[in-house]
Structures are given as C-alpha cells and as structure tokens.
C-alpha cells in the first residue's frame, strides 16, 4: 500500500457553461520518501488534484463526484471536516503557487508559522514562536530572529516562499505538496528552492508531490512522473522513463520542448494549438485536435491509461503501435 | 508610525478647523442685514445698547480683515461669543451639552459597527444563504428609512405597547439622589432607544459593507493558506479574514462620523436627549447665530478629531502602512 493513493478521482465544477469535469478518473500514488512529479499545461487539473488531497476544493462550485483519496488507507474524500482539519498541516501540507499573496498581510511571518505549530502540537505560544524562528533558520533565512517579526510585505518573493516552506514542514507532514513553488520566482531563486526541498525531504522523510510545468524541475527532483492533460493522467512512469522514452504524443511534445542546456539552439519550441476548454471536451481523446497521429477512433473513444509495452500511457496510437 | 506623519496630520486638522472658523465668519457677513442685528438674532428685542456692545465685541466698525483676526483670536481663546437667547456664553452652553452627544454618538457608532460587522461576517459565510438575503434587504431598508421615522416608530412601540425603555430624556428625575452606579444604569436605560435609532442606518451599511469585504477577502490566497494549516472555520473567519476585511470598514466608519453627528441632531430632537443636537435645533429656530456657529465649530472639531483617530487606527491595523 502506498502512503497516498488517489484512485479514479472525479471532480466537477458548476460553471456558467453547465457542469464541467475538471478531473476525470485521475489515479496516482506516492510512496514515503518519494517525489512524484505532476506535469501538464496550464489548466490541466494539477492544482485541483492537489487541493482535493487537502480537502480544499471550493464547494460549491466544486464537487468530488467520485473516487477515493487514501492516506495510509484512510479515505479522505469521506472524512469529516474535523478529521480533515486534524490532517491538514499535520499529515498533509501544501506550498502554493503564489508566494506573494499566500501569506496573511496583517500578521508577522513568525506568528503565522507559530500558528501552524500550535494548531497541531500542544505547545505554548512562546515555544511555538521559538520553533518558528528555528524553522526560518532551517529554510535559509538570514537573521531569522528579526525576520520572524517581519510582515510578509517586508520580504522578497523568494523569502516568502521559504516562509511558506517553513510553515508547511513545521509539523513534519508525511506528504508535502508543492504546487509550482517556483513559478513566480526568478531562476536563481528557483534552483535554491529546489535544493531546499530536496534537503527537507532528506531530513524529514516526507513524500513530495511536485507540481510543475517545468520538465527541467522534474528531471532534477522527481522519482516518478504523472503527465496530465485536460483533467486526465495520460502517462505515468519513473521519471527517467518518461524523460528518455516518452510514449504519449503530448508527453513527447513536452519533452522535445525542453531547451537543451549549453546549446545555442535555445529558441523555445512549443506544442501547436491549445488545451480545449473543459466544457468543449468531447467523447474522444482531448489531445486529438493537436495530435499528428490522431485517427477517427481517437475522436470517438477515450483511450485508457494502460501499459502498452514500455510504461502506462493513454493513447490509441501507442496501443496500435503506430508511433 | 513616525511622528512627522502624526504632526502633519494634526497640522491638516488645524488648517481644516481654521477654514471652518472663516466659513463661520463669512456666514454672518453674508446673511442679509446689519451683522450686529443678525448676531443679536431676530428676537425683536435687540436694544440699541445691545447692538452697540455687539459691534464693540466683534469689532464690526473695523476693516473686514481685522474683524476676521479678532474673531479667529476669540475662537482660539475659547470664546465663541454670547448667546442672546440663552443669555450665556456659547462655550459654556456647548460644554454643558457636549457630553450627552458624545456619549450618544460613540455608543451608536460602536453598536452599529459591532452588530453590523457580525451580521456581515455571518452573511459572508454563505453568500447565497438566508442570512445573506436578510442582510441585503435589511441594509436597503435601513438605508432608505429616515431616522426620525424609525425614532417615532420606536417611541410608539415602546411608549405604549411595550413600555420597557424610557422614550424621553437622559435621566429619571426620581434618581437625582441615587448612587453613581444607579445613575449610570439609568442613563444606559435611557440611551437604548436613541442609540439604536441612530445606529440602525449605519448598522445596515456596515453589514452590507462587511459582507462584501469579507467575501472578497475569503477568496484570497492567504485564506486558503490558513485553511491548509488546519485552522478552524471560526479562526479563518474572525482572525484571518476579519482583520483584513476590517480595513475598508474602518475607513467608512471614519467618513460616517460626520453623518453620525448630524444624525444625532435629529435623534436628540426626537428623544429629547439633552445634547448639542437640541441646542442646534433650538438655536436654528431662534436664529441664534452665535450658538449655531459654536455648534458648527464644535461638530467640525469632533469630525476632524474622529478622522484623525481613524487614520491613525488604520495605520495600526495595516502593517503595510506603518512607517510610511
Ligand atoms: N472554481 C472553479 N470554477 C470552475 N472551474 C474551475 C475552478 N477552479 C478550477 N477550475 C477549472 O479546473 C481546471 C483545472 O484547474 P487547475 O487550477 O487544477 O489547473 P492547473 O493544472 O493547476 O493549471 P496551472 O498550471 O495554470 O496552475 C481548469 O480548467 C479550471 O478552469
Ligand atoms: Mg495550478
């Protein structure tokens, strides 16, 4: 049994276009101490998957329409609100995409970390604040003593993300979800944050779910990868396998888009076309309109995520050996 | 917060007060007829000596600028002139009545903010729920209904149907020799209806404003962070969200203070509350200009002080503004 298992998760949203399916039978798992990378273009459902695990899908308009999320075998989808509050921050924690806006502007960062500690550990406010300072030190914030008394607006984006990381690991969660933790930061800071997450994982032994659209980050961080497209997982395997021998045409496209380091040819390539909006998804494969290998069957029938020889990929062309 | 900012704000306040004084001065000069006559009021009984003493006191036979200087100097010394109707210095008239007005205004302000914010927060919890609908309807009604109507309705209700609150005055005559606690309770008892009448308009506005402000804040990223920590619903609403949602409420509360004072004028008249409102009402009816001017000056001073306090508390509440 894996530490965290997501099985056939369906999430729908009520929108002005009617009910749309944001997650369609999403399954993935992560083992203790392992890093699972989740990649895919904007809007493919990465954050919604993460928020489902946290029990933070806004309901309404969202709804978990089916499936299970099991942490150590306990189904979080049916867990009570009180139980979820116990787990959030203590067993599963999350670092968000937007470090600039994810901290409360009217409290000091030390207090915000201390609050997370006090919510789950039976310690005094003094003790919690001291622990918060130690955590700030641990995530590499210089002069943590005075920084702890700063408000978020007094910190740079990179520092704020370090504060978010300190807060997320404050109760030594078993699962740490990092939702594009570096998208909003500049490149040198990105590398530092990745290093920090790697260290934290070594020290704390947490499983990490690393959400990103950056394949470079995947090759550095992830043990396994789930590639998502329009609310479905379309390929899932060890990171090396996906990077070396991507199966699904979308995964192949993603990987060919990584600019080769050290070469002059740094012109960015991209997959032509855009992800169809959720309310326009038809019966067939959502990638068909952008796919060079699409045939009539692809537009009619959704391919299942099945191992066709190498590793699991949801593609008729792969199944039929046409690629 | 730095002190140069504080000094600058106090400076603005003083300049504003000077403007009010000049406006007061112009008010008399622009009124038709002999200023001395105007100041003496149209009681018909202004004798020639009276007019002469007014001309003397206000320097009405001197150049206008000198007159202004004399007037400003008088006000600065706390001399707001003499009420001919009440036959007392205006300053002491106001001093006797300012206490009840401040009491009424502050209690009404606190009531409307506290109740309004609680209603707004409860409504924001479920934006499409029953409470939310109630707040919207209540806000519209509270805003539309004139305060004297509410007052009269409350008087009718409590005077005849449900006589549990006094509908007139501030103190019971029979308690004149009672202890301080009994007196305080008696005043609080008298305060209930006027304070609620005054609070209701603003209460409705605060409810609507805090509902909107809370809804906006509840959608923000740091609220999601608070939930992700495992914070309870109550802590999310009242600690994480309200502290942020309170900022626009604070601004409006400061701006409303002036309206609250003019609202108090009406409420005091309806409930016979012995404050500045009654004084203003009486002096306007009698065209007792020195008193009108004094009340105007004092009400402006209250608004200026309130705005200053609002500004300072805003800076205390929002760390992003501190030290700027
Ligand atoms: N509150 C909502 N109401 C309606 N639709 C929503 C809502 N939240 C998300 N969605 C839809 O769910 C889909 C998945 O969104 P999600 O935020 O998971 O994307 P993502 O993969 O994290 O993208 P990004 O890389 O831009 O962060 C999107 O198509 C989005 O339109
Ligand atoms: Mg996202």
Automatic annotation (TrEMBL), chain A:
This is ABC transporter ATP-binding protein. Keywords: ATP-binding, Nucleotide-binding. The keyword ATP-binding applies.
UniProtKB/TrEMBL annotation, chain B:
It comes from the Bacteria. This is ABC transporter permease.
């Amino acid at each position: 049994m894996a530490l965290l298992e997501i099985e056939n998760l369906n999430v729908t949203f009520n929108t002005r276009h009617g009910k749309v399916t944001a997650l369609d039978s999403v399954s993935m798992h992560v083992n203790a101490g392992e890093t699972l990378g989740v990649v895919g273009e904007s809007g493919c459902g990465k954050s919604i998957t993460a928020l489902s695990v946290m029990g933070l899908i806004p309901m309404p308009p969202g709804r978990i329409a089916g499936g299970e999320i099991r942490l150590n075998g306990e189904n979080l989808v049916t867990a009570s609100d009180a139980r979820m509050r116990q787990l959030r921050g203590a067993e599963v924690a999350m670092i968000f995409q937007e470090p600039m806006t994810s901290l409360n502007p009217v409290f000091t960062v030390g207090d915000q970390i201390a609050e997370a500690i006090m919510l789950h550990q039976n310690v005094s406010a003094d003790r919690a604040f001291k622990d918060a300072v130690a955590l700030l030190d641990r995530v590499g914030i210089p002069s943590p003593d005075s920084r702890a008394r700063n408000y978020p607006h007094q910190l740079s984006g990179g520092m704020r993300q370090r504060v978010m990381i300190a807060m997320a690991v404050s109760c030594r969660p078993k699962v740490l979800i990092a939702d594009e933790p570096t998208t909003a930061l500049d490149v040198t800071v990105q590398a530092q944050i990745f290093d920090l997450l790697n260290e934290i994982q070594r020290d704390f032994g947490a499983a990490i779910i690393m959400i990103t659209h950056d394949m470079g980050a995947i090759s550095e961080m992830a043990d396994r990868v789930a590639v998502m497209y329009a609310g479905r997982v379309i390929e899932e395997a060890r990171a090396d396998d996906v990077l070396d021998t991507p199966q699904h045409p979308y995964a192949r496209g993603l990987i060919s888009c990584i600019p080769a380091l050290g070469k002059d040819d740094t012109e960015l390539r991209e997959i032509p076309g855009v992800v169809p909006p959720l309310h326009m998804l038809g019966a067939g494969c959502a990638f068909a309109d952008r796919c060079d290998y699409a045939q009539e069957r692809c537009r009619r029938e959704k391919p299942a995520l099945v191992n066709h020889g190498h590793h699991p990929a949801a593609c008729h062309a792969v199944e039929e050996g046409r690629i | 917060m730095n002190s140069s900012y504080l000094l600058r704000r106090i400076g603005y306040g003083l300049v504003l007060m000077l403007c009010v004084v000049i406006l007061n001065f112009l008010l008399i000069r622009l009124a038709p007829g002999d200023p001395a006559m105007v100041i003496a009021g149209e009681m018909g009984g202004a004798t020639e000596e009276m007019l002469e003493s007014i001309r003397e006191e206000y320097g009405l036979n001197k150049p206008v600028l000198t007159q202004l200087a004399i007037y400003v100097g008088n006000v600065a010394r706390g001399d707001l002139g003499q009420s001919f109707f009440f036959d007392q210095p205006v300053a002491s008239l106001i001093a006797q009545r300012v206490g009840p007005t401040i009491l009424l205004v502050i209690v009404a302000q606190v009531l409307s903010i506290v109740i309004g914010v609680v209603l707004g927060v409860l409504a924001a919890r479920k934006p499409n729920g029953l409470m939310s609908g109630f707040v919207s309807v209540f806000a519209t009604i509270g805003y539309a209904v004139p305060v004297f109507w509410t007052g009269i309705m409350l008087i009718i209700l409590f005077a005849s149907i449900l006589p549990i609150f006094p509908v007139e005055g501030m103190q019971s005559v029979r308690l004149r020799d009672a202890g301080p606690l009994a007196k305080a309770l008696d005043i609080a008892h008298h305060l209930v209806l006027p304070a609620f009448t005054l609070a209701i308009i603003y209460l409705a506005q605060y409810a609507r404003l805090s509902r909107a402000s809370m809804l906006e804040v509840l959608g923000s990223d740091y609220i999601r962070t608070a939930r992700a920590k495992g914070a309870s619903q109550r802590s999310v609403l009242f600690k994480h969200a309200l502290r942020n949602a309170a900022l626009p409420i604070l601004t409006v509360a400061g701006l409303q203070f002036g309206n609250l004072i003019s609202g108090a004028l009406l409420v005091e008249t309806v409930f016979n509350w012995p404050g500045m409102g009654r004084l203003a009402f009486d002096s306007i009816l009698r065209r007792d200009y020195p008193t009108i001017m004094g009340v105007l000056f004092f009400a402006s001073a209250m608004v200026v002080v309130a705005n200053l306090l609002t500004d300072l508390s805003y800076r205390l509440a929002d760390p992003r503004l501190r030290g700027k």
